[in-house]
Amino acid sequence: MLRARGGQGQLLLVEQDQELAGQMVAGFNKAGVPMDHVSTLQQAVDRCLHGAPDLLILDVALPDGDGFSLVDWLRRQPGLQTLPLVVYSNREISDAEMAKLRLGPTHFFNKAKVKPRQIEELVLSMVSRMRNSPVTSVA
C-alpha cells in the first residue's frame, strides 16, 4: 500500500491516552489504512525494531520517557532517520523543541487546538502523497 519493498504499509501511533488512541485507530481502519498502537517509549522502540512503520504519530509525553528520546533513537537507526512524523502534544512545543523532534516530513499539533479527525485528514493526505510519489527501494 505505502511501501515499494513489499507488504502493506503501516502507520504507528505512539499515544498513552487509550481512549484517544482507540478513536484514531478506528478512524484510520475505517479509511482502510492499517495502524498499530503502542503506549510507551519501549513499546515504540520494540515495534520499530520488529518492522519500520511508514509514518509515525507521536505524543511527546509517554509514561516511560518522552518523544524526544524516541526521535533521538530513531535518528540513530538505519532507514528511520527520515521517517514521516506527526507530533500530537498536549502542550505548546517551542521552536527549539521542534528542531529536536524533526525527522522526515514533520507536522506539529496541539491536542487542545486540533481534533483527532483533523489529524486523520492530514495523515491521509500524507499517505496519498506517499502512495503517488516514486519510491525507491531500501537496500
How is the topology of this model organized?
Blueprint: E1 11-14, H1 18-30, E2 35-38, H2 41-50, E3 55-58, E4 61-62, E5 65-66, H3 67-75, E6 85-89, H4 95-101, E7 106-110, H5 116-132
Parallel strand pairs: 1-2, 1-3, 3-6, 6-7
Antiparallel strand pairs: 4-5
Helix pairs in contact: 1-5
Account of the 3D structure:
This protein has 139 residues and is an alpha/beta fold. It has a single domain (11-130), classed as Rossmann fold (3-Layer(aba) Sandwich). It has 5 helices and 7 strands; from the N terminus they run βαβαβββαβαβα. It has helices at 18-30, 41-50, 67-75, 95-101, 116-132; strands spanning 11-14, 35-38, 55-58, 61-62, 65-66, 85-89, 106-110. The protein has a 5-stranded parallel beta sheet with strand order 2-1-3-6-7. A two-stranded antiparallel ribbon has the order 4-5. β1, α1 and β2 (35-38) form a beta-alpha-beta unit. α1 crosses α5. It is globular, with a radius of gyration of 14 Å. The two termini are 19 Å apart.
For the secondary structure, the number of strands is 7
Note poorly predicted spans. Answer: 1-7, 135-139
Walk across the major sheet and give the strand order. 2-1-3-6-7
Largest sheet, if any?
Answer: 5 strands, parallel
Give Rg in angstroms.
14 Å
- Please state roughly what percent of the residues sit in beta strands, choosing from under 5%, 5-15%, 15-25%, 25-35%, 35-45% or over 45%: 15-25%
What is the mean predicted local confidence, pLDDT? Answer: 86
Helix content: 40-55%
Q: Would you identify the CATH architecture?
A: 3-Layer(aba) Sandwich
The CATH C-level class name: Alpha Beta
**What is the CATH topology assignment?**
Rossmann fold
- The fourth-level CATH homologous superfamily is Response regulator
- Large-scale geometry: globular
Distance between the termini: 19 Å
Total number of distinct structural domains: 1
State the secondary-structure class: alpha/beta
